[in-house]
Amino acid sequence: QVQLVESGGGLVQPGGSLRLSCAASGSAFVIYTMAWYRQAPGKTRELVASDTTSGSTNYADSVKGRFIISRDNAKNTVYLQMDSLKPEDTAVYYCHAFVRTTAPSGYREVWGQGTLVTVSS
User: Which of 31, 34, 43, 89 would bridge 78 by S-S if both were Cys, CB 3.0 to 4.6 A apart?
Assistant: First the structure.
């Protein structure tokens, strides 16, 4: 089995920065895609940023120029550097991954438990 654990959320003032981390753990797995989603109160979950093994990335228009997704393959960890945070960025942020496993064998998606980011004065 593969598990994702997020960290780094918290309370920050507008204009501040946070760095979220998501570490994948388990055995006999290959990660194809890692991504960050967020869900604000009263809204649906939306894709914030994604990073693939091939190196392609994409960002929601609302965060382009402010957020950067990166990955440390040796640590099976993906990061989300968030700068110039706005109150509208307040949400629960979820790590997500598509993985291939061999025990059991299959292709599946995995979600983290979520970490709350609150941008407020």
Answer: 34
User: Which is it for strands 29-39 and 91-102: parallel, antiparallel or unpaired?
Assistant: antiparallel
pLDDT in tens, 22-44: 999 988 888 889 999 999 999 99
Torsional sign, CA 64, 97, 51, 7: positive
* Strand, coil or helix: 101: strand
- Cα separation of 120 and 49, whole Å? 22
Q: Are the CB atoms for 72 and 79 separated by under 8 Å?
A: yes
Residue pair 2/110 in contact (Cβ under 8 Å)? The answer is: yes
CB atoms within 10 A of CB 37: 21
Q: Report the length, in residues, of the chain.
A: 121
Query: Sheet containing 2-7: which strands, arranged edge to edge?
Result: 2-7, 18-26, 77-82, 67-72
- In sequence order, what DSSP letters do the residues of 9-44 get, joined into one string? -EEE-TT--EEEEEEEEESSEEEEEEEEEEE-TTS-
How many Å apart are CA 18 and CA 6, to the nearest integer? 13
